[in-house]
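Example record for the data management plan.
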Amino acid sequence: MAAFLEILRNNEEVVAVVIGVFLAFLLEWISTARKRRGHFSALQAEMELCRALAETYLQHKISAPLYRLPTMAYAHSLPELLGSAALGKKETKALLEFFTEVETLNRGLDQAQAVRDDAKKLKEEVERNEIKAGHLVPNQSYYHQARSILDGRLRWYRWFW
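Corresponding structural encoding:
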């Protein structure tokens, strides 16, 4: 250790390189953390919009509404987080369960739209869609687990402006 300190005292260039490498690492780490925070924030915002639309579907009883639940953040941010190993197995499963149910509800809404002139088939689709929408609202397992994960991650990333 003493030899290393002696080298540092005699070689200002080495000290400059070490400081430069450390600063580069620190800046890259902060940049990555900010990107991840953005992805988690996008997923949380999209999840809340999906929740609100699912609640609207359940409350207003419109059989084949024109709206669909958004999946843009799911399609763009989740792959980025998975690719950078920012999520564990349990976290990935919870987010996939929620957003897969969103996609399933969207398909169900499309199917309800397609059969809106057949009362029997429309009733069957609406019943299935109400079950799907129910999984996306608070106090249901898909919503609660996914929201807890995103809230926890965003609490940690709040330090990165």
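Summary line stored alongside the record: Residues 12-60 form the longest helix (49 residues).
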